[in-house]
Amino acid sequence: MKPMNESHLAILRRHMVEMVAIHADLASDEIGKAVLDERVMAAMRKVPRHLFVPAPLAPYAYQDSPLPIGFDKTISQPFIVALMTDLLSPQPDEKVLEVGTGLGYHAAILAELADRVWSIEIIEEFASIARDLLRQLGYTNIEIREGDGSRGWREHAPFDKILVSAAADKVPATLLDQLKPSGRLVMPLGPEEMQRLTVVEKDANDRTKAQELLPVRFSRLETIM
After folding, report:
1. Which residues on neighbouring strands pair with residue 95, listed in sequence order?
2. Which amino acids are annotated catalytic?
3. pLDDT at position 7, please?
4. Beta bridge partners of residue 198, listed in sequence order
């Protein structure tokens, strides 16, 4: 069988986004809406997810499921990527901090929607691969560094939005400190068996409130002592 070309892959991306839309509708009671932001869906239709997974898994990249990427990590299910991005609501004039780059797929989605993305990855090999791939794809508004994402990136703080693609029992205080007043943070919170996707908003007086949504299962947020 001959390999798929770009036309085939574009069709598969569209089908993936259609499945994400169905999933959102089915989960509407839990997530509070039946339709995700069209800007997010357009980014999902554009970014080539098959390039952000190991080559043998590329034929499965447009299924609505997570896939292993090495080091016991996964690229998140497309529905979860779309939902977290929709909840974060990055705007064209905003700075976003991402904790947990992986191979760079979610960073690319965010870069389609925000002015600037700063992404931190604790696994050096992932950071190196993501940096090279995103550069090859022409993303000039993403910067990646290796390190402990729970400490944020103070040199570029404060951030309008923060996305954390790993779970913790509570939001690291440093990340809340680096979130702008009226900013928003999205991450999974809770112990491994009871994680819930959570939206944390900071008001103009630096007070925070959290809204728990649907149950999820993410790797734990790794830190460096």
Report:
1. 116
2. 76
3. 86
4. 187, 212
pTM: 0.95
Buried b (16+ CB within 10 A) or exposed e, 182-209: ebbbbbbbbeeeebbbbbbebeeeeeee
The domains of the chain, with CATH numbers, are 6-215 (3.40.50.150)
Host H or E run for residue 215: strand 208-215
Largest Cα–Cα separation, the chain: 61
**188: closest CA among 179, 177, 199?**
199
Give the whole-angstrom CA distance, residue 180 versus residue 155: 14
The residue whose two tokens read 């050096």 is 124
Per-residue pLDDT for 225 more than 70?
no
Mean pLDDT calculated for residue range 145-158:
96
* pLDDT higher than 90, residue 202: yes
CB 139 within 8 A of CB 74: no
